[in-house]
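Handoff note, outgoing to incoming analyst
You'll be picking up this chain. Sequence as last confirmed:
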Amino acid sequence: MSERFINSILVRGVNWIGDAVMTIPAIRALKRAHKGTKISLLVKPAVVPVFEGDPHVDEIIVYEERFEGPVGKLQLACALRKKRFSKAILLQNAFDAALIAFLAGIPERIGYNRDGRGFLLTKPIAYNNDDRKIHHITYYLNLLNAAGIPADYRHPWIYLALEERLATRERIASLNRPVLGINPGATFGSAKRWLPGRFAEVAGWFIKETKGSVLIFGGKSEMAIAEAIEKLAKGQLGVYAGAEPSDDETHMLMNVAGKTSLRELMALIAECDVLLTNDSGPMHLAYGVGTPVVAIFGSTAPDLTGPVGYRNTVIKKDFSCSPCFERTCTNGDLRCMYTVTSEEVFFKIKDMLPRKRAVFFDRDGTLCRDAHYLNNWKDFEVFPETEQVRTLKEAGFSIIGITNQSGIDRGLVSESFVKDVNKVFTERYGFDDFYYCPHGPDELCSCRKPEPDMLLKARALHGINLRQSYVVGDKDADMLLAKAVGAQGILVTTGKQKESPYADVVVDTLKDAVKIIMAHENNQH
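Most recent structure output, in case you need it:
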């Protein structure tokens, strides 16, 4: 390849929020396969917030309105040519995506051979109609694999800054827990929308039975639907239209439709215990931030665009006419939506609500001496105070281990040895589970603390209410993890840190940590 081209890759992204989330695994795979290479993402303004703060994307180039039309496309191509990209990956299927990459003089252009654009690509990837009968995440990964770029599946993860999480938590501080998010809209068309009255029924039942609250989402075009649901739900709760909101009401219902940016919407969804939604952009945002989803499908197919991740639920009725992929029902009866009852949706939500409390423990420096990449049994020394965790288990807590093990990625520790060490805590000390992240810090993965994926997995598989739980560890990463999910963070000084600005409490030993937790529980009850 000519030396005049910089070692950088242009990724032509997609235009819709849901599709954008489904491209995330492919973008991560591209970054893993080209370490040290600059990844630039060309996307329209509507999806930019999905990728803001994503460490796998080095640059976001906004496809502005001024680039529409022949002259605009030439201007964009000229701007891209100056950046001297060495490769273009076209996740978008459009002819224009290939044309712009060609006009920009990018020497290697990879994309599916469809929409009449094969002659513009240097590596056209064979396409047939069966390629669109698989989940869209797999569709994008397959493009890379077929081009010789190794691309395995990783969960689509949207990165939220701690400041965003804390500001959002403050915004909804008045709401009772648990919080049910409701997203009643779907921009594609009415064939994807469940009935407002049934959303309202579920909202009313949820508030009455759980003593929790409901948060209603929607874009500016969906404000009328959100307001209708809010009004119906209030009527079900005995709140009269036009009445001044009571203190109880402000704790149980909040309508933010049309009042959020996309980043604010993502952070709000992340604070929900469950999201009830149609097949829509917010559905994809929900699993991207780790929130459990109950998704109602009508005219579309969950096999193609359904939620991925831990313990999400899809409700869909099968008819001869579905999936039709129409914007409006051509039969005029919308039977695929009418036959989904409020009762079955409500019971699915109830089943998904996390109810157990847990104490999460870091391993090295917290439960055992930090031997710096523990890789043999002679250096394995469990702190005597680890026996104290049994007290927490007897009090009804789930006990779960969480540990970063970058030594696996670096070849310093065998994964089987890590599993054997973790097994000591499950078999000898009664831990309910033990999770580990095998990736190095350069992977920028969603499971390496302080990112919360290990805790979110535990929430889904063990039914853990993270906001009534604790994280005990010896590092800032553990305390930041607690902050991210709304748990209490307790720093023990048995490791390398003697203080942390992110800790709620600092103690000397595990025994002290157990005392603090038990005292707090006794005060609560």
